Amino acid sequence: MPMNKHDATLARLKSNLGLCARARALIFGTPMVCEALRSNKPPCLVLEAGDSSDNTHKRLTDKCSFYHIQHIRLPITGGELGAAVGKTSTVAALAITNEQLCKPVLATWRMLTESPDSPSSETKD
After folding, report:
1. Domain boundaries, the chain
2. In whole angstroms, what is the distance from residue 49 CA to residue 63 CA?
3. CA nearest 72: which of 100, 19, 108, 39?
4. By the 8 A CB rule, do 95 and 24 touch?
5. Which letter does DSSP use for residue 4 in this model?
6. What CATH fold (topology level) applies to the domain 5-123?
7. pLDDT of 125
8. Which helix (H) or strand (E) holds 71?
9. Are 50 and 74 in contact (CB under 8 A)?
10. Cys-Cys with 102: which of 22, 32, 44, 111 at CB 3.0–4.6 Å?
11. C-beta separation of 50 from 75 below 8 A
12. How many CA atoms lie within 13 A of 29 on its CB side?
């Protein structure tokens, strides 16, 4: 069965995240992401699984807002996010540390949100 545009773009986003993981440009897990946000060299983008808890969502949104880091809640589950970056467990949040690798992820996210059949869920400060 052929993929529709939304599914193909989502697959490209997961592929870009896998590339970031292979380049070791990711920080995994909510506590580690929050710690990285407080560091001297914060990440350039924070991504959150769509099925993360309300507490995790609020924690990440507040931290990203305070430190002026872009935060995106993805329309995929923690299991899918973990699989995309090569983890066997679920991943509620991850952060991209390399600015050059962040660009294709953001470009793919913009393509995904421009699609008329997908809801946008982005916080930018």
Report:
1. 5-123
2. 16
3. 108
4. no
5. P
6. 60s Ribosomal Protein L30; Chain: A; (3.30.1330)
7. 47
8. strand 70-73
9. yes
10. 44
11. yes
12. 5
- Reading the chain (125 residues) residue by residue, the pLDDT tens digits are 556 888 888 999 999 999 999 999 999 999 999 999 999 999 999 999 999 999 999 999 999 999 999 999 999 999 999 999 999 999 999 999 999 999 999 999 998 888 665 554 455 44
What per-residue confidence (pLDDT) applies to 115?
61
pTM for this model (two decimals): 0.85
Residues forming a β-bridge with 96: 26, 45
Q: What is the spatial distance between Cα 18 and Cα 81, in angstroms, rounded to a whole number?
A: 10
In the block, residue with structure tokens 């959150």? 48
SS3 helix, strand, coil % of the chain, rounded to 5? Answer: 50, 15, 35
For residue 67, give Cα distances in angstroms to 58, 99, 100, 107.
Answer: 14, 16, 20, 22
Query: Tokens for 64?
Result: 């990203």
Q: What is the pLDDT of residue 57?
A: 94
Give 80: exposed, middle or buried? Use CB within 10 Å, 0-12, 13-18, 19+: middle
